[in-house]
From TrEMBL:
Keyword hit for Transport: yes
Pfam families xref list: ABC_tran, DrrA1-3_C
Organismal lineage: Bacteria, Bacillati, Bacillota, Bacilli, Bacillales
PROSITE patterns assigned: ABC_TRANSPORTER_1, ABC_TRANSPORTER_2
Domain ABC transporter, first and last residues per copy: 4-229
Protein name: ABC transporter ATP-binding protein
Length: 309
């Protein structure tokens, strides 16, 4: 049974349709990422699930409960990361966690949360002197104080440098290790690809694709772009191009200086044939490159437009 089910969720603001009939379900223990460009409807979707906004229509079930009937029980089992701007500058890290822990019936010891978000050594620092990454980790800590089953993080890594971003990824992965479910939003394709079990791509309030990152990429295309460089200019270039064209699945063969480029839907067989040929003809290969399809290519393929990060 899914831990979260969302059916036909819809929300409009005056003339803007922010969320347009969105449905999905999330299994316990998943890292589920909602990704989309600015204004796609990610925050509105998340806030409706968190009970912070009321949908115009649609259904939200969290562990078979709903906000109308079971608001108090739901609040005990979810954790929502606040915006870092909502933290109190003058409180220390420890005090910030302690204040929030006091709001719940069941809470985790603050020391444990500090350890989990790797802020133990900064426990007595005031919020205002923390770095951006430390503030985000503290905000995640606040979401953890009631030891929730489901966590909601809205763009937890926006604006952070690569190392600070990776520290947040580690926390999310550790939460998965504890069996927690995390639903997060992001602008970063790489983050969705590396971190998530499943990715829901939204654009203009609608889901345009939902699957594991691997499947999304695989379904789009099995085609790869391959290039091979040689130490010297190839002899009989035209003959070579003709031979490569005959390999199964190969299209778009071209050469430029000492490099051969082609696309193939059968990477393994094409490379096997190619290396057989270069070996038999004693052609030395200097470098080989294979370009993978990324989630960004998936977005462009579904929407026909560039990803606006
Ligand atoms: N309170 C509001 N009043 C009016 N329009 C709103 C309100 N909240 C959101 N919108 C509009 O709804 C649409 C979806 O906004 P939302 O914040 O959910 O998108 P988002 O994907 O989270 O974007 P971002 O990545 O920029 O945070 C946008 O067009 C936005 O301008």
């Amino acid at each position: 049974m899914p831990i979260l089910e969302v059916k036909e969720l819809r929300k409009t603001f005056q003339t803007v349709v922010a969320v347009d009939s969105i449905s999905f379900s999330v299994e316990a223990g998943e890292i589920f990422t909602i990704i989309g460009p600015n204004g796609a409807g990610k925050t509105t979707t998340l806030e409706m699930i968190e009970g912070l906004q009321t949908p115009d229509s649609g259904e939200i079930k969290i562990k078979e409960m709903n906000w109308k009937r079971n608001a108090e029980q739901i609040k005990q089992i979810i954790g929502v990361q606040p915006q870092t701007s909502a933290l109190f500058d003058l409180l220390t890290v420890y005090e910030s966690l302690d204040v929030f822990a006091g709001l719940y019936k069941r809470s985790r010891p603050v020391e444990e949360v500090l350890e989990f978000i790797n802020l133990t050594e900064h426990r007595n620092k005031r919020v205002k002197v923390l770095s951006g990454g430390q503030k985000q980790r503290l905000a995640i800590g606040i979401a953890l104080v009631n030891d929730p089953d489901i966590l909601f993080f809205d763009e937890p890594t926006t604006g952070l440098d690569p190392q600070a971003r990776r520290n947040i990824w580690d926390i999310v992965r550790n939460l998965k290790g504890l069996g927690k479910t995390t639903i997060l939003t992001t602008h970063y394709m790489e983050e969705a690809e590396k971190l998530s079990d499943r990715v829901c791509i939204v654009d203009q309030g609608k889901i345009i694709a939902l699957d594991t990152p691997q499947n999304l990429i695989y379904l789009l295309s099995q085609e790869r772009e391959i290039h091979l460089s040689f130490p010297t200019t190839l002899k009989d270039v035209e003959k070579f191009v003709d031979i490569v064209m005959q390999y199964p699945g190969v299209t778009n063969v071209k050469t430029e200086l000492n490099t051969l480029y082609f696309s193939t839907t059968n990477t393994e067989q094409s490379l096997y044939e190619l290396f057989k040929y270069t070996t038999e003809n004693q052609i030395e290969v200097k470098q080989i490159g294979i370009k993978d399809v990324s989630l960004e290519d998936v977005f462009i393929s579904y929407t026909g437009k560039e990803w606006r990060d």
